[in-house]
Amino acid sequence: MKYIYIGDIVNTHGLKGEVRLISDFEYKKKVFKKGFKLYIGRTKEEVIINTYRVHKEYDMLTFEGLTSIDDVIIYKGDKVYINRSDLKIRGYFNEDLIGLSVYANNNYIGKVEYIMKNKAHNILVVTEDEKKNLIPNIKEFVTNIDLENKRIDVKEIKGLINENWYINSFSRNVWTIFK
């Protein structure tokens, strides 16, 4: 089973077993439905959604068989996951991109280390050795995502790829020596 992180239970709400979840998961409408399975905490304890509603910035959930605050208080602070195979989508999850090799004009840039979420779009953090490149995950920059071959192709745009990293790194090291 491959788990995908979708959010954190930050607190309980009321006395009837409702929890507050903070999530920026992009497929909430497909996940937060009665009968959908979630997995909570390090042990990935399986629970089934009974009710869902939105309250302020929180996703409010109750689970089947858990009807009091005493039943759900143990989940406060836990991470919530879904099983990858339980959610059928066209395309990919952001988590699918982590570890893929990134190329610009067939020149290797590095691997996707993680994805930063931004209000406008997601940003791929691509690292090679100590060098980091931040690449917006939008069609103007990312030209091809090939999950099968574990490869992402990006347009080579001046300033997008940190071409002068080695020079800047050398300058910092020399400056440290003379301090």
Which features does this protein show?
179 residues; mainly beta; six-stranded antiparallel barrel; six-stranded mixed β-sheet; 3 helices; 12 strands; elongated; disordered C terminus
SSE topology:
Blueprint: E1 3-13, E2 18-22, H1 28-31, E3 37-40, E4 45-55, E5 58-63, H2 69-72, E6 79-83, E7 101-104, E8 107-116, E9 123-128, E10 131-136, E11 142-146, E12 151-154, H3 165-178
Question: Can you describe what's shown?
Answer:
- The protein is mainly β.
- It contains 3 helices and 12 strands; from the N terminus they run E-E-H-E-E-E-H-E-E-E-E-E-E-E-H.
- The chain has helices at 28-31, 69-72, 165-178; strands at 3-13, 18-22, 37-40, 45-55, 58-63, 79-83, 101-104, 107-116, 123-128, 131-136, 142-146, 151-154.
- Strand 7 and strand 8 (107-116) form a beta hairpin.
